[in-house]
Amino acid sequence: MTSIDREFIDSLPKAELHLHIEGTLEPELKLELARRNGVEIGQSTVEEVRATYAFTDLTSFLSVYYPAMEVLVTEQDFHDLAIAYLRRAAADGVVRAEIFFDPQAHTSRGVPFSTVIDGLWSAVQEAPALGVDAALIMCFLRDHSADSARETLEASLPYRDRIVGVGLDSDERGNPPEKFADVFAAAKEAGYRLTMHCDIDQEQSIANIATVLHSIGVERIDHGTNILEDPALVAEAKQHGIGFTCCPLSNSFVTEEMKSREIATLLRDGLKVSIASDDPAYFGGYVGDNIAALAEAQQLSRDEVVQLARNSLEISWADDTRIQEWLRRLENAASAR
Ligand code: ADE
Ligand code: ZN
């Protein structure tokens, strides 16, 4: 048994850098929003909603995930979703939350971009009162066209100051990173920071990881543990301080295991590995649960758990002065016990 108690994990200031806000839709809130908006969802109890949250891989997860979003209609809905997440994150010691959102999952069903961003932004502005510095990362859906991503990028530009970076998510199969090379180049030109999902055990995982590093020029990779298949790429990612945002509980839903060995190997090799919850309403836990599960599975030492928190802060896209302040708080918390 690991000697790391949950209180210790929660006491460490940390950044959560891989969190899809639409993936925080807990059954209770889904039912409330369905009632509020008069949306017929075919479920009327928490148990019934929870029973729909069942899948075996990324594709089957996404086929549950997108239809569930139909209850998100108004600015208030997006605000309430984000505030509920921020409260939960604060309880786990999150001081910085970089929140993914998928505009195309909403604009494609008639919800205006402005409704989504205004709702989320009002929650971001309230986050400091909860002890969290929050930021938004706009993700393009990789199973939509590059033209659609380009239109989404253009729609975001009036809100440039509310969005720190762009990412790429949804179904990786048949949708490699190079499909979005031009859009990401334009996003970089507009001042956005870059990250991309390289999901676990994809048909072309290692080729896609090479592309995001060499052709796209990302600063972080979301998931990305398949990089271990190519030691030269591992060395390169280490040399360039590429951040990894790994999600053990999510991995255990979309593949057969948490990939805890791979995550711990990268951490122990000195790569900038951080832990996050991905879609916590669907994958059974928030960031503290994810760190606890990894610590247990790989018998992480307390220093290694502190290193995960340190990495998360160092690879965050917050202002450097804030990062330095959190790192000082982290060292105090780590030595307080
Ligand atoms: N969208 C939400 N969660 C995702 C994941 N884990 N991978 C790809 N797209 C996602
Ligand atoms: Zn994700």
Notes on the structure:
- By secondary structure, the chain is an alpha/beta fold.
- The protein has a single domain (6-335), classed as Metal-dependent hydrolases (TIM Barrel, Alpha-Beta Barrel), CATH 3.20.20.
- It is 51% helix and 15% strand.
- It has 17 helices and 8 strands.
- It has helices at 6-11, 27-37, 46-52, 58-68, 75-91, 104-107, 113-126, 146-156, 181-189, 205-216, 231-239, 248-254, 260-268, 280-283, 287-298, 302-314, 320-335, and strands at 14-20, 94-101, 133-141, 163-169, 193-198, 220-223, 243-246, 272-275.
- α11 (231-239) links the parallel β6 (220-223) and β7 (243-246).
- The longest helix is centred in the N-terminal third of the chain and has 17 residues, at 75-91.
- It is globular.
- The model has no long low-confidence stretch (mean pLDDT 97).
- Bound molecules: adenine and zinc ion (ZN).
- Zinc ion binds at residues 18, 20, 169, 197, 222, 278.
